[in-house]
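Progress report, Aim 2. The chain analyzed during this reporting quarter is listed below.
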Amino acid sequence: MKPILAIDPSVCAIPAIAQTRDDVEGAIKQIGKLSKDIRECGWCTIGTLSDAATILASAGYFPISTGIRKMLEDYNLSSVYSAEEIRKSVNSILERAAHLEEISGVDFFIPTEVDIHPSADDVTFPPELREALSLLLGHLGVAHSVGGVPRSMLGVSTISSRWNKSKIEFKGKLEDISPWHHDNYEGKAHIDLEVSVCQSADELRCQLDADDIWRSAQNENAIKLAIELAAQNMARTCGLKSSFLTPTSFSIGPHFITSLNNWEASGDGRYSSCVFETCVRIAIGQPKYVVNEMLAKTGSKGKAEVHKCRKADGAGAYRTHVSKDHEAVRLMYWKRNDGHIEFANVGAKHDLEIF
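Predicted structure tokens for the chain:
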């Protein structure tokens, strides 16, 4: 499960729904950031409604080249921005963003008794785009209340000139939900959601809760993101120098998640929080318990064991306590000469195997 940044179709409206030159420039910059985020951001899912382009066209705001050029001329921005680059960025968002319907698992619903605060009900905001915002928030509501995505992992990117608040509140009923796989809901859901306004992936990242991401992580990217966020916070708390605020370069080994599941160290498992803390402390060079080298036999008679190293890159093998109870658990990891760490697996107290 990844954090979700949902793009309100109004962000891609051309001409921009704005009243001042600064608003238009803000909208252009936002489009550029989101287009780049979709291309480069691997730690979160960036999505919008599957029919966002159709919605914009029906409202008279589809981003065609002539409309973009006229908008730039009207606000004396023709010499500052390229109409073609803006068109490419908007089309990249509409074509490459994930579909919220796939994220929520719901293709269709009718929102009723909708209350959005701050309100989108004013004459400058077309009804088609007001309805689109309701649908978008409804999908996020399903992802949260039914799919279990924590609120801290949800964000909405909407036009900044209209939303000067950091949160959007959505309350309403969703009826005739299809498809619906939860018999007890009978195709209906009551949504009460407060979601952060995040104009880019970077803004969403700033509000993330590392513990939420760790507990819900299902892939290596999510595990790495959780450790990165918690390591940055712990480094600040420990008063480390600024050079430590970016944790030591690290990666997640191919067997790490499987070992977490096998040892009750994922989700809300018995060892989940202490394994998480151990990884974070290793990442910033502040281990809670002693770190020991893992040893390997030399194969030569009469020679002592030596530090176990990986042939591919010379990385050394290490292990440290995760807990010291009766069924003590260890964390095993590789560390290269350049300081790069690869979290390999967790195992039992006497487990000497590293993957």
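Residues 152 and 207 are 7 Å apart (CA to CA). The radius of gyration is 25 Å. These observations will guide the mutagenesis work planned for the next reporting period.
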